[in-house]
C-alpha cells in the first residue's frame, strides 16, 4: 500500500529576517591663546578700578557618540486562512562629552562679584536613549466573506542624562570652588491594541467595525530642581470604537466612509483628544473617461470636561475636486475646500491667575488649480504647468495667502532636460500683524540615467 505525499499548500510557511547596524560620531576641538600676550577683549574701561585682561587660555572638548540598532521581522502562514507577522526594533544612542578650560589673567566674575586671576573648569556629561518598539498582528479569514485583523504595538523610550561640572576660581587672597551634579530623565511608554472585522455583505458593499485601546504613561525629572516643575507624571487611557463601509453601486461611482468615537480617562496634554468623534467620507464619480469628480468631507468634535481645562473643539471641512484629461496634450485639475474651526478652552490669566476663556474661530476658503500642457513644437515636447493656490479666512485672525506658479520643462535629449520655475508667495493679515511678499525663480539642467 502506498501513501500520497501531503500537498505543499497545507505546509506552514514562515519568513524571519533580522538586521543589525549602527553609527559612530567623534568631534574634538581646541581653542588656545599662548601666554605672554594680554587680550583686553571688548571692554577697555576699568571695572572696580582694575583693567580686565586675558593672558592665557586653553579650552578643549571631546564628544563621542554611538548608536546601535537591532531589527527583527517575521511573517508566517500556518494555515491557508491565517497570516502572522511581527517586528522588533531596538536602538540605543549614547553620547559622552568632556570639556576642560584653563584661563589666567585679571578676570571678573559677576555672580558672586569677584575679581580673580585664574580659573579652571571641568565638565563631563553622558546621555543614553534606549528605544524599543514591538509590533505583532494577525489576519484571519475564517469564511469567504469575513476577514479579521488584530495588532498590538508598544513603544518604550527611556532617556537619562547626567552632567558633573566643577569650577575653581582664585586669586592671591581667596579661592572659590563649585561642584554640581545634574541628573535628568524622561520616560515614555505607549501601547496600542486594535481589532477590526471586515464583512463583504454583497459584491458591492463592504462594512467593517473595530475597537482600539490606547494606554501609556510618561514622566520626567530634573535634579536638582530647576524652574517651576522639577518632576512630572502623566498617564494616557483611551477607548475607541471604529466603523466604516465601502459601497460601489455603479462601476463609475464609489462611496467610502469611516468613523471613530473615542472616550479617554486621562491624556498627556490639555489639547489632546479626549471625548471625541471623527468622521471621514468620500464620493468618487467618473462622469466620462476623461473626467473624474471627487467630493470629500471630514469632521472632528472634541470635548474635555476636566476641571481647569473645559475644552471644546470643532473642525469641519468639505472639498470638491475635478480632474479633466480631454487630450494627451493637456489636462486640468482643480480643488475647492471650505473649512471651519471653533475652539474654546479655559486658562489662567498670567497677571491675575484668575480663570479666563480663550475663544478661537476661523472660516476659510481654499482654491487650487493647475493647468498642464504638452505641445509638440518641431519634434520637441515641452511641459508647461501654470496655476496656484489661494487661501482666505475670516474670524479671530483673518488671513489671505496666494501662491501662483509657472513651471516649464524642456527636453534637450533623451537624458537631459532644462527646467525653470517661477513661484510667488503672498501672505497677509487683516490687522497687519504679519505679512510678506516673495518672488522665487529656479532654473537648471536635469540629467537622468
Can you characterise this structure?
There is one protein chain. With 449 residues, the chain is an all-beta fold. It has one domain. It is 0% helix and 76% strand. Strand 6 and strand 7 form a beta hairpin.
Blueprint of the fold:
Blueprint: E1 13-33, E2 53-79, E3 82-109, E4 114-128, E5 131-143, E6 146-170, E7 175-179, E8 182-200, E9 205-223, E10 231-250, E11 253-266, E12 275-288, E13 291-304, E14 311-327, E15 330-348, E16 355-373, E17 383-395, E18 399-411, E19 416-429, E20 435-447
Antiparallel strand pairs: 1-2, 2-3, 3-4, 3-5, 4-6, 5-6, 6-7, 6-8, 8-9, 9-10, 10-11, 11-12, 12-13, 13-14, 14-15, 15-16, 16-17, 17-18, 18-19, 19-20
Percent of residues in helices: under 10%
Low-confidence stretches: 1-11
| Proportion of strand residues | over 45%
**Which radius of gyration do the C-alpha atoms yield?**
32 Å
Largest sheet: 20 strands, antiparallel
Quickly give the structural class.
Answer: mainly beta
Shape: extended
- Distance between the first and last residues' Cα: 63 Å
Keywords:
single chain; 449 residues; mainly beta; 20 strands; disordered N terminus
Short description:
With 449 residues, the chain is an all-beta fold. It has strands at 13-33, 53-79, 82-109, 114-128, 131-143, 146-170, 175-179, 182-200, 205-223, 231-250, 253-266, 275-288, 291-304, 311-327, 330-348, 355-373, 383-395, 399-411, 416-429, 435-447. The protein starts with 12 loop residues before the first strand and ends with a strand.
